[in-house]
Prior knowledge:
38% of the residues are buried. This protein has helices at 18-32, 48-52, 73-87, 98-111; strands at residues 2-7, 9-10, 13-14, 35-42, 60-64, 91-95, 114-125, 128-135, 140-144, 151-155. Helices cover 29% and strands 34% of the residues. An 8-stranded mixed beta sheet has the order 5-4-1-6-10-7-8-9, sandwiched between helices. A two-stranded antiparallel ribbon has the order 2-3. The protein is of the alpha/beta class.
Amino acid sequence: MNALVVAEMQLGKLKPSNGAALRFAQDMTAQAGGSFSIVLAGHQLGNAVADVNKYGAQAVFVIDAPQFEHYLAGTLSDAIAALVRAKGFDMVIGGEATTARDFFPRLAGALEAGMCRGVAGVEEIDGAICHKRSVFSGMAISVERIHTPIQVLTVDPTAINDPAEIGRAHV
Length: 171
């Protein structure tokens, strides 16, 4: 598995929801094999690159340009979709935050990929990785399988209790 974590920023700092997405990527690639990378998009990113470079990602991609200074879902989804296609990622992961609720469905559409929101865990069924998420206000758990070559996921930050592990980056 080759996963890409889309790290979100707000006011020049990484959003707390990134921690759950990074931990999920660490766990998924450890369980299923493969590696994960991180992408940061914005303008004048400053220390954010150093902040994400400590989580053991195979690579950190930086998209630093004036058109990314202010969030526009279409511009961001086009740039991330191009990166996913160019590098051959088969899973895109992000935190379940306000921006992700707007951006990730657009990204899934651009990639013609299946999407699952609010993932809380995984389960292997018949050799396929399925995603568990809370439904009906937490009263039930749904297990969903994505059948497209690329999967787009947002991770429920309340379901991932352990912080992302800090490790040496491979970059």
